[in-house]
Amino acid sequence: MIEILIVNESPETKFFLMKCLEATGFTVIEIKNGFVRAHLTEKELSNIEESKKSGNISSIFPSIPRLYKVFEFIELNYRRPISLKEVAQAVGYSSAYLTNLVRRLTGKTVNDWIILRRITEACSLLLRTNESVNQIALQVGYQNINHFYSQFRDCHGTTPHAWRKAQRSKLSRSKKM
Predict the structure, then answer these.
(1) CB under 8 Å to 54, separation ≥6 — which residues?
(2) Which pLDDT score, from 0 to 100, does residue 173 have?
(3) Pairing with 106, which of 61, 116, 158, 175 sits 20 to 30 Å away (CA)?
(4) What is the CATH number of domain 112-176?
């Protein structure tokens, strides 16, 4: 059994999380007090381990075979500046076609996925390390710190500093229970 704390409780985020969990083989059992309880079968766990060993991407991206190369490119390159044009060239599509395809299949743009991947990694680093927010922003591909703060605030409604403090506080409270 796995428990996941939902930080952004908007309906769109919850829906997206449920779809991501289901796409990766989880069965959502319960949603209560901001936590999602999910179960992953042994078979799916084995598949994940095999994917990791073979170098396949395993992350926040939905499992859409037609977009695998797009998400793989983002996964391998999000730590550096990348553009829609560069992603499109890497997968052999025009920028316009790729934009329409990704939006039609996922409801998000290529740039949205790049931002989501960067912010997801930033959140992980904020929780796991004591590195400064500026260092983390640079590590996840932002050249402009103000741009990072702006995009982080758009995703989480607060600054990275405040988010880190709140999440660490929630984690310490949940460990005490």
Answers:
(1) none
(2) 79
(3) 158
(4) 1.10.10.60
